[in-house]
Specification:
- The protein is an alpha+beta fold and 95 residues long.
- It has a domain of 64 residues.
């Protein structure tokens, strides 16, 4: 029994109910996962401010929209995002 499990059991006895062992469970599907962290405006559906995207933790790519209400800038942002995401997805086409 691990120290975390022992601590959770002691806390469960004290609280009178089960305690979670973890808040998040990770399942690693690949060595280089694609991570996308979007940032959008509040109340404006489909108006992105930017995104951090990449497979390398040390060198993510930052994409930003200078004026999220400008439709042309939003579409340019989506084109940049597609350039970053599609090659990663296409790499798994034969898997």
């Amino acid at each position: 029994m691990s120290l975390i499990t022992t601590l959770a059991r002691l806390e469960a006895v004290e609280a009178g109910r089960a305690q979670p062992l973890a808040t998040v469970r990770h399942r690693h599907l690949t060595d280089r996962p694609l991570v996308i962290v979007p940032l959008t405006t509040a109340g404006e559906a489909g108006a992105p401010l930017g995104a951090l995207v990449g497979t390398d933790r040390e060198a993510p790519r930052l994409l930003a929209v200078a004026q999220p209400r400008d439709r042309d800038l939003r579409f340019a942002f989506l084109a940049e995002l597609a350039e970053a995401v599609l090659p990663h997805i296409e790499a798994y086409a034969d898997v």
